[in-house]
């Protein structure tokens, strides 16, 4: 495998070198042309200087502290999403930014010393300035005007496209087809009698021209430093353009920041008005709620309510105790037989009851004393009993009256207690409502104060007119022109001078329909090529001179050697020679191969079996009217009647086709053909059969069954590449294994075929 690869690489290199050798004049002309074009381009192309500068992009400084953040960047830095610094690269390369520079510097008007190819762009050196005052068309077309300073006060303006040639004074309005212009004197520059030219174009065209030579890229992925590059013919003007572009970017950035701040201030002012109104509404509702609920201090009032509830509860309990005592006392007084003293320590807070109780106890004590002296029936005792009964009755009346009073007071205390308790139950809800009002009030108040603070901070940020981004390096031009780069131009021209002719040669070979190299054959078929027959330069000479050392003769000798290696030399060999179409040289190959074999001492017979268009006999100069193969079949003649000696070698014989017949295929299918071939095998070393073209008729396939080898002939620059499919079909579909290929009419000095030169420069002189 490695040997095969080396061989293929060697063939590719040989073919490549052969292409250069064969078309050396194309390569020479191409080198001269492209080097000349490179020299002309380097000489006359517009020289461009490289202008560079650097700018540092920075965001608004931010810190976790909100107040510090707003103090630095204004409220807009928090209310909007933080811009990605990397996006600023697109802004720096934007068309709008460049258009602002073009408009500010009037870069759509270019000034030149002289005109034509030798024109050199000027900047502020021209003694005049061109101003466009009125556009008459929507889209301006490029116009070049030649301006000559006639004297200190007069200029001449000319343009052949618009048929304009005017002499006008400085400062006068000139009406042109696309616009009106005014040419005024440039301050500080004296008028010089010299030819100038002015190019006037649209702003869009000027922007496009600048953007094509401009770029802005970050110097490193980890930094925000942007490097600007601009190629421009005038170094000073290029520096001014690039410096103006950076300043314009910083100004736009600052103006955009101020616009954002103004928008933020308006937003904050609107929000302050809304929040103030909301805060006033909350405070009014808070006041109304406190008034409606009689709330001054909810905590102190809650304490008072809890104290009152305790007082009313204690009072109610005391009154219930009084009622219980009164009820027990009433039960004792209601018993007439009860003569006991009632304790005066009972906590009954009633003056009349206390007086009656004291009188009642005194009577009881007096009766007990009287009983010591009197009996119950004694009038004294009875009188005391009557008094006791009256005192008891009065005491019971006092008790009833006091009980009613206590009951009424107790009911009132209970009602007051219930009222206070209900009021206490409502306190948490009121506290929650008060908390909601206080919270809303506090939030709105904080927001109001916050917005006031931010308005002041944003106003302070607006007052700071310094952009955060800054210029690191001002625009600086290279000392010498950076374009065109001469080494690259000449190297490119050298390669073009080599590639263009090579591409032409290869494309010619690629699109060629005819076979013109061995590589074409290898791409179409895998049939082994056993011979390459050189081109025969001898006009009208069909048989080669066996004593010659010409490439054609040597190619036949090489083919003879190949045949000996492929065939069995101990027995006779039958070889059929065919092609795809006529004119490819099968008859030429048959006759010359037979002559070469005969010259080596082998007995050879040439059999002309192209019965439809026989040419072999005529090619060899034999009489075509004598009997041949058709007579052998149809008249059943013996071989001795049809075989004839050739005129060029005693070892070579010929059997002609005989008269042309209509049933050529049927004759080839007869049993006489294998009999003929078998008899010829016994008498000759080689039997060479000149068969019909296999691409036109099927006769060759009939003959092929009786041969040892089939040689397919294709012709250089004659055989169509598509006809190689016939060869593949014969090998695959017809199962022909003994099939080999010979290339005819090869010019080894110019074609892409490998070979040994066939004796050129070695041995005898070529004839």
TrEMBL record:
Gene3D superfamilies: P-loop containing nucleotide triphosphate hydrolases (3.40.50.300). It catalyses: L-tyrosyl-[protein] + ATP = O-phospho-L-tyrosyl-[protein] + ADP + H(+). Its EC number is 2.7.10.2. Residues 574-694 form the AAA domain. Residues 431-507 form the Tyrosine-protein kinase G-rich domain. Keywords: ATP-binding, Cell inner membrane, Cell membrane, Kinase, Membrane, Nucleotide-binding, Transferase, Transmembrane, Transmembrane helix, Tyrosine-protein kinase. Residues 16-104 form the Polysaccharide chain length determinant N-terminal domain. The chain crosses the membrane at residues 24-44. It is an enzyme of class 2 (transferase). One of its GO terms (molecular function) is non-membrane spanning protein tyrosine kinase activity. Its main location: membrane. It is found in: Cell inner membrane. It is a multi-pass membrane protein. It comes from the Bacteria. Belongs to the CpsD/CapB family. This is non-specific protein-tyrosine kinase. It comes from Mucilaginibacter pankratovii. The lineage of its organism: Bacteria, Pseudomonadati, Bacteroidota, Sphingobacteriia, Sphingobacteriales.
């Amino acid at each position: 495998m490695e040997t095969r690869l080396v061989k293929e690489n060697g063939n590719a290199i040989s073919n490549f070198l052969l292409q250069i050798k064969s078309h050396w004049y194309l390569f020479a002309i191409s080198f001269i042309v492209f080097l000349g074009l490179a020299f002309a381009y380097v000489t006359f192309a517009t020289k461009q200087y490289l202008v560079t500068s650097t700018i540092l992009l920075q965001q608004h400084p931010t810190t976790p502290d909100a107040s510090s953040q707003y103090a630095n960047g204004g409220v807009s830095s928090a209310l909007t999403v933080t811009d990605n610094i990397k996006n600023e690269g697109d802004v720096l390369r934007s068309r709008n930014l460049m258009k602002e520079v073009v408009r500010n510097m009037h870069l759509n008007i270019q000034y030149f010393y002289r005109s034509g190819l030798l024109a050199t762009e000027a900047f502020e050196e021209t003694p005049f300035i061109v101003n466009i005052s009125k556009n008459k068309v929507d889209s301006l077309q490029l116009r070049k005007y030649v301006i000559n300073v006639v004297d200190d006060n007069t200029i001449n303006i000319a343009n052949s496209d618009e048929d304009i040639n005017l002499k006008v004074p400085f400062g006068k309005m000139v009406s042109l087809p696309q616009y009106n212009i005014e040419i005024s004197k440039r301050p500080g520059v004296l008028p010089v009698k010299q030819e100038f030219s002015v190019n006037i174009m649209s702003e869009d065209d000027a922007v496009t021209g600048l953007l094509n030579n401009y770029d802005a890229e970050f110097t490193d992925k980890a930094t925000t430093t942007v490097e600007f590059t601009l190629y421009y013919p005038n170094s000073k003007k290029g520096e001014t353009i690039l410096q103006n572009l950076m300043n314009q970017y910083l100004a736009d950035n600052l103006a955009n920041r101020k616009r954002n701040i103004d928008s933020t201030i308006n937003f904050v002012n609107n929000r302050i008005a809304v929040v103030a109104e909301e805060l006033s509404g909350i405070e009014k509702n808070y006041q109304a709620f406190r008034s409606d609920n009689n709330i001054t201090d909810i905590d102190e009032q809650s304490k008072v309510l809890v104290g009152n509830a305790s007082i009313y509860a204690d009072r109610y309990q005391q009154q219930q105790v009084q009622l219980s005592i009164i009820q027990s006392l009433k039960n004792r007084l209601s018993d007439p037989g009860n003569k006991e003293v009632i304790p005066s320590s009972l906590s009954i807070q009633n003056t009349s009851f206390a007086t009656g109780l004291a009188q009642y106890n005194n009577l009881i004590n007096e009766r007990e004393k009287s009983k010591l002296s009197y009996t119950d029936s004694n009038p004294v005792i009875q009188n005391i009993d009557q008094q006791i009964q009256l005192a008891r009755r009065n005491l019971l009346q006092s008790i009833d009256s006091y009980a009613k009073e206590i009951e009424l007071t107790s009911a009132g205390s209970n009602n007051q207690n219930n009222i206070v308790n209900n009021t206490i139950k409502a306190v948490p809800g009121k506290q929650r409502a008060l908390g909601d009002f206080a919270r809303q009030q506090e939030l709105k108040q904080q927001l109001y104060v916050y917005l006031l603070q931010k308005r002041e901070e944003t106003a302070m940020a607006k007052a700071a007119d310094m952009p955060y981004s800054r210029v690191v390096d001002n625009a600086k031009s290279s000392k010498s022109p950076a374009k065109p780069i001469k080494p690259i131009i000449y190297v490119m021209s050298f390669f073009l001078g080599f590639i263009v002719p090579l591409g032409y040669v290869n494309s010619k070979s690629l699109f060629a329909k005819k076979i013109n190299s061995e590589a074409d054959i290898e791409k179409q078929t895998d049939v082994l090529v056993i011979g390459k027959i050189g081109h025969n330069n001898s006009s009208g000479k069909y048989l080669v001179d066996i004593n010659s050392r010409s490439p054609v003769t040597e190619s036949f000798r090489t083919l003879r050697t190949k045949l000996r290696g492929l065939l069995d030399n101990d027995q006779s060999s039958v070889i059929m020679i065919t092609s795809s179409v006529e004119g490819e040289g099968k008859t030429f190959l048959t006759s010359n191969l037979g002559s070469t074999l005969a010259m080596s001492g082998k007995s050879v017979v040439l059999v002309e079996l192209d019965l439809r268009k026989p040419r072999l006999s005529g090619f060899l100069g034999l009489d075509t009217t004598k009997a041949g193969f058709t007579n052998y079949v149809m008249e059943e003649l013996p071989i001795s009647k049809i075989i004839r000696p050739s005129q060029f070698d005693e070892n070579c014989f010929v059997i002609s086709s005989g008269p042309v017949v209509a049933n050529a295929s049927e004759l080839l299918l007869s049993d006489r053909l294998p009999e003929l071939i078998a008899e010829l095998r016994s008498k000759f070393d080689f039997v060479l059969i000149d068969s019909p073209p296999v691409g036109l008729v099927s006769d060759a396939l009939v003959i092929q069954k009786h041969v040892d080898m089939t040689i397919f002939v294709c012709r250089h620059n004659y055989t169509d590449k598509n006809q190689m499919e016939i060869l593949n079909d014969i090998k695959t579909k017809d199962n022909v294994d003994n099939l080999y290929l010979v290339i005819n009419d090869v010019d080894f000095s110019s074609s892409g075929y490998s070979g040994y030169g066939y004796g050129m420069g070695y041995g005898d002189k070529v004839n």
